[in-house]
Write a structure and sequence with these properties.
single chain, alpha/beta, seven-stranded mixed beta sheet
Length: 247
C-alpha cells in the first residue's frame, strides 16, 4: 500500500497514457495512480484497463465518466475517491509529460519531510521555466498569475499550476462542493482557498515542457473563466467564512 495517489485526468491521451504510467511506476518511491477519463473516443481508457489487468491491478485505478465534464470536476471526483481510501498525499499531474514524473518525489518531500500542506510545482518561482511554449502562451500564463497576485494579494507565483501535492487534511477541510470553477480557474480557486484557510504552501521550482504528442486542451474560454473568476475570489476573500483547520 502506498501513502500517495497521483490523479491524472485524461481526454484523448492514447499517445501518452501508457508512457506516463510506466514513468511514474518506475520511480523509487511507490506511487499509485488514478486516471479520470472523460469518455475519450480514442481508447485511452481501454489502454489503462489493459495495464490494470496485465500488471498493475493493485496500483492503477480508473474512473470513467460520460463526456467532457471539465478539469475541476475530474479532480474533485478524484479527491473524493482518494479521501474514501487511506491516502495521505494526493497529487495532480497532467498525462502529457509537461509535468516531469521525476519531480513527484520533490513535491512529496516538501509535504512529507518539510511539513508543508500544499506543494506546488512552480514554473515561475525561480524565473520562467517553460520549454517549447509559444511566446504568446508563456506571456498569457505568466501575466495571468501576476494578475491573480495583484487582485487577491495571494503571494504564490504560479497560481494556475496544475502540478501539486496536497496533504489529506487540506482536502478534508476544503468544502469541495463549494468549489465553483471547472477550467483553469479551478487551479486558482483551490490554491487560494488553501491559503485563506491558513495551510502552509511551498512552491517547488519545476521545468514545464510543452506536450510532445497529442493535442492541447487549452482554450481562450478556459483563461476567460480564470480571469473573471479572480474578482469573485477577491470578493469571497473579504466576506466568505472559510473552514478552520482541525487540530
Amino acid at each position: 500500500m502506498s501513502d500517495s495517489i497521483v490523479i491524472i485526468p485524461t481526454y484523448n491521451e492514447k499517445e501518452n497514457i501508457a508512457k506516463i504510467i510506466e514513468a511514474v511506476f518506475s520511480l523509487e518511491k511507490c506511487f499509485h495512480i488514478l486516471v479520470i477519463d472523460d469518455g475519450s473516443p480514442d481508447g485511452t481508457a481501454d489502454i489503462v484497463k489493459g495495464l490494470m489487468a496485465d500488471r498493475y491491478a493493485d496500483r492503477l485505478f480508473i474512473i470513467e465518466r460520460e463526456g467532457k465534464q471539465g478539469l475541476g470536476t475530474a479532480y474533485i471526483a478524484g479527491f473524493r475517491w482518494a479521501l474514501e481510501r487511506d491516502y495521505e498525499y494526493v497529487f495532480e499531474m497532467d498525462a502529457d509529460f509537461s509535468h516531469a514524473p521525476s519531480d513527484l518525489p520533490r513535491l512529496y518531500g516538501a509535504c512529507h519531510d518539510e511539513g508543508y500542506d500544499l506543494a506546488i510545482g512552480s514554473r515561475y518561482v525561480s524565473g520562467v521555466n517553460v520549454v517549447n511554449w509559444p511566446i504568446g502562451r508563456v506571456l498569457m500564463s505568466y501575466f495571468a498569475s501576476k494578475y491573480v497576485r495583484i487582485v487577491t494579494g495571494f503571494k504564490v507565483h504560479d497560481t494556475t499550476a496544475g502540478f501539486k501535492c496536497y496533504k489529506r487534511r487540506v482536502l478534508e477541510t476544503i468544502e469541495l462542493d463549494k468549489i465553483r470553477f471547472k477550467g483553469y480557474g479551478f487551479q486558482i480557486e483551490m490554491k487560494y482557498t488553501t491559503y485563506k484557510i491558513g495551510f502552509k504552501i511551498k512552491e517547488v521550482p519545476v521545468v514545464f515542457v510543452n506536450r510532445r504528442e497529442g493535442v492541447s486542451k487549452m482554450s481562450g474560454g478556459i483563461f476567460g473563466e480564470a480571469f473573471f473568476g479572480v474578482m469573485r475570489l477577491r470578493w469571497d476573500g473579504w466576506f466568505r467564512k472559510y473552514p478552520t483547520i482541525k487540530k
